[in-house]
Structure formats: C-alpha cells, structure tokens
Amino acid sequence: MARQAIQGKVSELDDIISKQIAVDFDDTLAIEVLGEIVPTKGAKEAMSRLWRHGYIIVVHSARSWEAFQDRGDKTRWMAEWLHKNHIPYHKIHTGFGKPAAIAYVDDKAIKYENNWKEIVDWLIARKGVEFSHGKTGVKK
C-alpha cells in the first residue's frame, strides 16, 4: 500500500513538473532602460498566454543582488514588480539552482544539439564581454 502511495505522489509531481515553465527574471522578463526596470517586449503577453494555456509559471532568479540583504527582500521586490506590471506568475524562486520544470526560458541559455564545437566557438568569441554589476542586478 505504501508503495502505491509513493507512486501516486511521484506521478502527481511528474504531472506538475510537466506543466511548469521556469522563466528567468533578469534580462528575460525585465531589463534596465534609462535607470528603470521595465518589462521586456512581449513579456506580459507571453506570460498571460502561458497562464491561459494552463502552464505553471515559476519566475526565478539566482543572481545575488547587492541591493538586497536577503532573498526575502528580493522575492518581495520581484512580486511587487510583477504585480505592478501585470505579469502573471504562480511562484517566485530565488533559491539556489533552477526550479524543476519542463522548459526554461533564459537569456543565457545555450541549446545543445550535438553541436559542441559551435557552442565552444561561440563562448570563446564572447570572452571579455562585461556585464553590469549594478544594484538592480539587471545587465545594462
């Protein structure tokens, strides 16, 4: 009986993960423009569409922002920003690593398609690219 209960919980978790989309906050949902953090073009519409189609939207950020003393402050700030900008979401993840999901939307993602040479060539070509270490945590 216990085995069936465990299998049921695993199946339930698999079902949730199969509907969960992880969306990076920095430079994917939000960018800095003239010192203000604003939604990226199409972000609100995209998140609304995913919401309507039954996806569980987890907004995440692993960046350590200098402006925040703890993850609680960071999470509250993100929640307020998302609400103010009418961007729907189910959960915010600011812990270590990425949340479990069926797909990840992230500006720094590299798609692997048996293309290691292409990936390494691209990464080497980007060597020396500098990113802002500003207080917002969003690249300039």
Describe this structure in words.
The chain is an alpha/beta fold and about 140 residues long. Helices cover about 35% and strands about 15% of the residues. The chain has helices spanning about 1-15, 45-50, 70-85, 115-125, and strands at about 20-25, 30-35, 35-40, 55-60, 90-95, 105. The strands form two sheets. Strands 5-4-1-6 form a four-stranded parallel sheet, covered by helices on one side. The chain has a two-stranded antiparallel ribbon with strand order 2-3. Strand 4, helix 3 and strand 5 (about 90-95) form a beta-alpha-beta unit. About 15% of the residues are buried.
Search tags:
140 residues; alpha/beta; four-stranded parallel sheet; two-stranded antiparallel ribbon; 6 strands; disordered C terminus
